[in-house]
Amino acid sequence: MLTLTQATRPPAPVPGALDLSGTAAQERLHLPQAASVRLRSNGFVHMASLAVTLNRKTGPQTDRQALAIQAVNAAYRAFPGLAGVDVAVFDAGKYLGFASRTSPPLLTLSVPAGDRRTFARALKAGTYPRVWPGAPSAVMPPQAPAPVISLLRPVWRGPAGQQAVALTFDDAPHPLYTPLLLDLLRRYDVPATFFVIGQNAERYPYFVQDMVRAGHQVGNHTYSHAPLTPLNEAEVRSELARTSRLLRRLTGQDITVFRPPGGGLSQTVLRAAAANQLRTVMWSHDAADYLNPDAQGLEAAFAGTLHPGQITLLHDKVESTVSALPAMIQEARARQYVFKTVDGLLNPEPARRLVGQQPGAATP
After folding, report:
1. Disulfide check for 1: which of 50, 189, 285, 324 has CB 3.0–4.6 Å away?
2. Which keywords has UniProt assigned to this entry (predicted)?
3. CA distances (Å), origin 100, targets 51, 97, 103, 133, 200
4. pLDDT of 146 over the 50 cut
5. Residue with more model confidence, 94 or 335
6. Does the predicted TM-score (pTM) go above 0.70?
7. Would you say 240 and 274 are in contact if contact means Cβ atoms under 8 Å apart?
8. Domain assignment present for 143
C-alpha cells in the first residue's frame, strides 16, 4: 500500500474529455438512453456514473445487459482516461431520478478500466462479479468473526489514551463517490468504516465487497434509512436484522457495529441493536458535510477538533468530502495520529463476544 509520502500529486485533467458535466457530458456520450451522466475526480482518478433508461416496461435481462454494455463502451469512448464506469439501468416509465428510492434500478454494473475488454463476454456468460442482480461468484467466502466488545450503550468516542482516529462514512455505497473514496484511502493507506444502507448494498454489492477486500470495516446503517425512533422494537429489530443478513452474505463477516440514521436514538433502538449483536456507534466529531461546505471548511473543522479516540462522521456521497480527505489525513498524521476502523479503535486488545447483552448491563 502507498503511504502518505508515496502519494503523488493529482494528474492533469485529460484536455477536453473529463472537464464536462450535465448536458455537455450527455452530448459527448452520444447515447439517447442516458438520463444522467456524472463525472467526478478525487484528484488522482476520474470516474463516471450513468443512469440509462430502458423503454420496455419489463425488458428481458438480455436487453438490460445489452444497454448496460452499450453505455459502458460509450462512456470509455467519450471520456478517455476514466478509471471506472458505473451504470444503472432504469425502467423509463418509472424513472424519477437517480437518487429516488421509489424507482430502483433494474440492473447495476461497475466496470473498472482493467475489465473494459473482457466484461461484456463475462456478463453474457453470467460470470461477471460486478453486476446486480449478481452472478453466483458475487458472494465472498466466510471469514472468521472479529471480536467485539460489550453491548452496553452508545459509543461516542474511542479510548482517550489512544492517539488514534476512526473515519466513518455513512449512507454507503454510492456508485460514483465510493470508488473515489476507496481509491484515496488506498493511496494513503488509511482504514475506515463504512455504515452501509441495505438498499444501497443490494443495488451495488460489488462496492461493499471492495470495501472489505481493501481492509475496511462495514457497519449496519439500516435497510431503508428510515427514522427508527417512531418504530416499535420489533420493527427496528427487523430493519437491522435484514441488513446484517445481507451484509454477512456479501462479505462473509460478522457485522458488529450500527449507526442509526440521523443519529436517532432511544432505548428501543438500543435494545433492538443489542438483540442483533450490534454495538451502537455515534461520533465525537460531526463534519456536517451533508450541508455541502467547501473542502477548506471541512479541513479546518477537522483540524480544530482532532482529539484522541476521535470518531469522525462523514458521508460517502459528498464531493467536498472527497476533496478534503487528503488534507485531513495529512493533518492527523502530522500530529502523530494513526487511523483505525471503529472495531480497531474500540478493541485495542482482543475482547470476547458478549452474546445478547442488553444496554445497561454491567461490563465484565
Report:
1. 189
2. Hydrolase, Metal-binding
3. 12, 5, 6, 19, 12
4. no
5. 335
6. yes
7. no
8. no
171 and 130 in a single domain? The answer is no
Q: What is the pLDDT of residue 347?
A: 87
Contacts of 89 (CB under 8 A, 6+ apart): 52, 53, 54, 64, 67, 68, 71, 105, 106, 107, 108, 109
- Residues with catalytic annotation? 170, 315
User: Is 327 inside a domain boundary?
Assistant: yes
What is 262-293 written as a DSSP string? GG---HHHHHHHHHTT-EEB--SEE--GGG--
| pLDDT, tens only, 193-231 | 999 999 999 999 999 999 999 999 999 999 999 999 999
Take residue 55 and report the three cell numbers written for it: 423503454
pLDDT over threshold 80, residue 260:
yes
On whether both 259 and 336 belong to a single domain, the answer is yes
Distance CA 154, CA 158 (A): 11
Give the Cβ contact number of residue 136 at 10 Å.
8
Say yes or no: 275 and 218 in one domain.
yes
Within a domain: 169: yes
Mean pLDDT (whole number) for 296-324: 96
pLDDT score of 98: 65
240 lies in the same domain as 335: yes
